[in-house]
């Protein structure tokens, strides 16, 4: 039986990809950054933001790959769902045979 | 196969080299810029996920259409259609059934029709003729005869179908369906398949209550506890009993008991009337929800680490209280629905018994007096055994449908509990032996599932170890590191192969023996040991 691809929310996708790149940019972490870096100098702040820009570049690349994979899974699912429907009767017969084999009562 | 998004992610797919052009990123100069950049990414991901969801839904719809088409072909069989028309199902019953089908969602309608068509096909013309014979039978004896002609295979097929959620839902609607909607308009709404299957569904719905009782008799006969005079405990059979004026005193007592227990549970909720109880509980949920929302809002703002910690603690406590209040709300709704059903049932029973309806308190008091005088107390052991038998039946049905490791485990536990209860009740030796044999056979099936799962996990781990080596070979690692990787890989694969040979292959040989002579304790030890070693290695690889 074809499994339905699991599609998480936008926030979950973002966090899942960003987790591997820059944990400070997770949706839960961003609001805490102001307090965390309250005493940093202007130079440090500029460097930090540059680091974030670099992280977003990496994120964009990883996101493209992720979405390509999602699309691939959806295409495979579409194809398999139709094929599976077309072969329903065949599968039913197979499952009946399996049940007979496994029957123990 | 894992279809979760994680498996599609870049981390888990090292071979999917990101062949993506470098993109420019919006400049980040402030915390606000950062929030906006993140929000845009989240929104973009949400939109893409929605698009993919729609595509999946479309694929499901196309597959559904294909299944309906397939089902239509299978019921177009002239023999089946003739048997259905020979049944002489009344036009009004068909309209009533179509009314009920129309109350299901489009997806449920398709599911029901496809399942019915599959059932008709599986039963074949002989099975359908038996259902037709039951429908046309006049007396109870004729009906019983018609049921007795069913083979074990047919019983299992029908039982699988009658346990499906969509049929349960249809049963609720068939008892409530209003006749005012015109049959003609309904038929325009429903597919041709609904029309072809409707007489079959009419017959099946009548067949159901009697069949469930019959099926229980079969199960009891297998377990050696068959009692043709037993008082049924499931809702459909109780209602059917009451309608046929059977076991009225028993049902009156159990309904009164259930009503008393239900009212005691309802007393735990504040308020004098059902409406007040529901209102109070709803207020409780709403207030807690508002408080949770307020803390959530507070947390999205820039606050100090100390305040954040305190707010998070408060949020956790409030969420726990909200969860509890919502559970209470759901429980209250269930109790009130059950209460209405029991009150109505008791009224019907008393009407049939010719007892004048009394005020609730008086009625309860007189029933409790009666209980003391006339109802023999059933022993706790009997009741427990009955409940365990029902549990085993459910587990058996789930296993018949899915035949997988978890259902085998549930069935194995249910059978073991039933066997223990049977031993405590000193049931006949034959019954104990039957239960024991069933338990041994399902344990064997369970052990086979465990072994298959383990073998698969081993193979998957070997695959990922080999893939890691390929990735290492194509990377620009220094030669000495690469040699080290090869050595590691070989050692890990050797360990896995040894574990498979020493434990899993030995366990597999034991499991091949006849059920009853398999040393399960040893097999479990072997599997457990292999798994603990395997887990260490897998964690190490990860």
Q: How does this model look, in words?
A:
The complex is a heterodimer of chains A (105) and B (542). The radius of gyration of chain A is 24 Å and the shape is elongated. Helix content of chain A is 70%, strand content 0%. Chain A has 105 residues and is mostly helical. Chain B is mostly helical and 542 residues long. The relative contact order of chain B is 0.05. Classes of the chains: A mainly alpha (105), B mainly alpha (542). Chains A and B meet through helix 1, helix 2, helix 3 and helix 4 of A and helix 1, helix 2, helix 5 and helix 18 of B.
Name a few traits of the molecule:
heterodimer, A: 105 residues, mainly alpha, 70% helix, B: 542 residues, 3 domains, disordered N terminus
The gist of it:
The complex is a heterodimer of chains A (105) and B (542). Chain A is mostly helical.
- Strand % of chain A is under 5%
**Share of helix of chain B, binned:** over 70%
C-alpha geometry of chain B: globular
| Helix-strand pattern of chain A | HHHH
Instruction: Work out the oligomeric state of the chains in this entry.
Output: heterodimer
End-to-end CA span of chain B:
19 Å
